[in-house]
Specification:
Order of helices and strands: HHEHEHEHEHEEHEHHEHHHHEHHEEH
CATH class of one domain: Alpha Beta
Bound molecules: glutamine
Number of helices: 16
């Protein structure tokens, strides 16, 4: 039994009887016990995973209908709700919150017989890029435990990279699936806005965020998308994708396709290693028969500022509900009057969340909105029209996912602006609603580098074809853990 397997190979092996679902689940739980003390990808584990596995084995041996997932183990970011399990958002304020309902994505997985291994670590409320802002301690990068795994879905990416599950679900508001995927050498997709239901995802900035799959291979990403995508009556922003099969024709190739290399994301600010990997990737795309040329989207330099203005505004409003009345934790509340009770409760937020709430109160406020919030919305509209014109000419837009490789813990945590600028290459897909994928491309000096491919809205099928083609050009080492 090989825990490094892909989902598709796992399913074939279970179908052919090479091992049972219970055997694989037990081995996965053992792997978590062996390595998660170091990696800290998980915040909690699903105690009934083995029982779930036995139930699926029983269906298999009785010849009953089994869901398409055949019991493969998947971890879920801890800002996605599952009935009866703790959902903390890696925050002290939700330390004891037990979700009363299950997110649509998880219901879909469970009805297709996937097994949830547990909930994964993140930056508090998905705000950050390293998992250092988790209230429960950081996740370590399985490629080198001294390095950050990226974020905010760092636990999700690390759990897949460290073979503590076969796939994971993260959330991506400004890069939180793609960045850790790039830092941990796994595949991460931020789908078109609305392709995947957000019902049961605890909101950070709901107008631009999406749940996205984290997998070992591009084909697994297509497989998972087939299971979780689609319209949901519980989320009115979802779009119809009827009859889409993201695996079918995935090997079609990209012969004759036009690729725009985004100038603003590839000229300044890249580390020499990332810059040289990007040049190689462009050559690979050419070898695959695509035509590559530089394209400029002049609004990009303003996107990080616009992103933080818009997301902080939404976060300020979304997080107002944590007043310790509707959700909360225990403390000796006697003697507090209403305002001081709420203020005291909200001291449970960590520094990054507080920073965003303060910013989110200021930028949309009367007298300042024109200068900040409305301007940010204008940047967003301008960016969308630039991206739409680019997609009239190009099938794909490319850049490295992150301008740098993973860095050491503590290196950037005291410098919020530097951290924010690392979102430079990822926020465009969120602000425009376009799909984008990070594909593992190189491991240089023992640390991963991912390439980003952005597609036009609802073009996931073609996006995965390009990602698969690029993946076929790589030959990456195995994680040393
Ligand atoms: N680093 C970005 C932020 O802190 C992205 C987070 C995300 O995508 N959830 O907002």
């Amino acid at each position: 039994m090989n825990l490094k397997t892909s989902i598709l190979d796992y399913i074939n092996d279970v179908k052919s009887g090479s091992f049972s679902v219970e055997e694989f689940t037990s081995a996965t739980i053992q792997r978590i016990k062996d390595v998660d003390g170091d990696v800290h990808a998980y915040l909690s584990l699903n105690e009934s995973a083995i029982d779930d596995a036995r139930a699926i084995d029983k269906k298999i041996s009785a010849g009953e209908k089994v869901g398409t997932c055949y019991g493969f183990p998947i971890s879920i970011k801890d800002n996605i709700c599952i009935t009866g399990s703790k959902t903390t958002c890696a925050s002290k304020i939700l330390e004891n919150f037990v979700a009363p309902y299950t997110a649509t994505v998880v219901s879909k997985l469970q009805s297709e017989d996937a097994i949830v291994t547990g909930k994964t670590n993140l930056d508090e409320f998905a705000m950050g890029l390293t998992t250092e802002f988790s209230a429960y301690g950081p996740t370590k990068n399985p490629w080198n435990l001294k390095y950050v795994p990226g974020g905010s879905s760092g636990g999700s990416a690390a759990s897949v990279a460290a073979n503590e599950c076969l796939a994971s679900l993260g959330s991506d508001t400004g890069g939180s699936v793609r960045n850790p995927a790039s830092f941990c050498s796994v595949v991460g997709l931020k789908p078109t806005y609305g392709l995947i239901s957000r019902y049961g995802l605890i909101s950070y900035a709901n107008s631009i965020e999406q749940i996205g799959p984290v997998t070992k291979t591009v084909k697994d990403c297509g497989f998972l998308l087939n299971v979780i995508a689609g319209q949901d009556s519980n989320d009115d922003t979802t779009i119809d994708n009827a009859n889409s099969d993201y695996l079918n024709d995935i090997e079609q190739g990209i012969e004759g396709k036009n690729i725009g290399i985004i100038k603003e994301m590839t000229s300044d600010g890249l580390s020499p290693e990332v810059s040289s990997a990007t040049k190689n990737a462009i050559q690979d795309f050419e070898k695959l028969g695509a035509h590559c040329e530089e394209v400029s989207l002049p609004t990009i330099p303003y996107t990080v500022a616009a992103y933080y203005t818009i997301t902080s505004t939404e976060a300020g409003s979304n997080l107002a509900r944590y007043d310790n009345i509707r959700y909360g934790y225990d403390f000796e509340s006697e003697g507090y009057e209403y305002n001081s009770y709420i203020s005291k409760s909200r001291t449970k937020f960590g520094p990054e969340v507080i920073r965003r709430i303060i910013l989110g109160g200021f930028v949309p406020s009367a007298g300042h909105a024109g200068k900040y919030f409305l301007k940010a919305l204008k940047v967003k509209s301008k960016l969308i029209s630039e991206a739409n014109s680019a997609f009239e000419k190009y099938d794909y837009l490319i850049s490295p996912t992150a301008p740098v490789q993973p860095f050491q813990f503590g290196e950037k945590i005291d410098d919020p602006v530097t951290l924010m600028l690392l979102d430079y290459n990822t926020v465009t897909a969120n602000l425009t609603g376009k799909p984008a994928i990070s594909v593992p491309y190189r491991v240089t000096d023992g640390l991963p580098i991912g390439m980003q491919i952005i597609g036009d809205g609802k073009s996931e099928k073609s996006l995965l074809q390009a990602a698969y083609a690029l993946e076929s050009k790589t030959d990456l080492p195995e994680v040393p853990l």
